[in-house]
Design brief:
The chain has 53 residues and is of the alpha+beta class. 28% of the residues lie in helices and 8% in strands.
Length: 53
């Protein structure tokens, strides 16, 4: 799904400003613990995975 969304947006021009808003909600279904961007996924916080892309 993410790959399809990126294809629809198209390439980013050189020098273009790109940002990510981490607004994933409270994460109640994940149970008690840290906020979703800080929860581990594959041994690293979820937010770190977003930053790589």
């Amino acid at each position: 799904m993410a790959a399809k969304a990126l294809q629809e947006i198209g390439p980013v021009r050189s020098g273009a400003l790109v940002g990510v808003v981490l607004a994933g909600g409270e994460g109640r279904r994940m149970g008690p613990g840290p906020l979703k961007p800080l929860r581990p996924l594959g041994g690293r916080p979820m937010g770190a995975h977003v930053g790589e892309r």
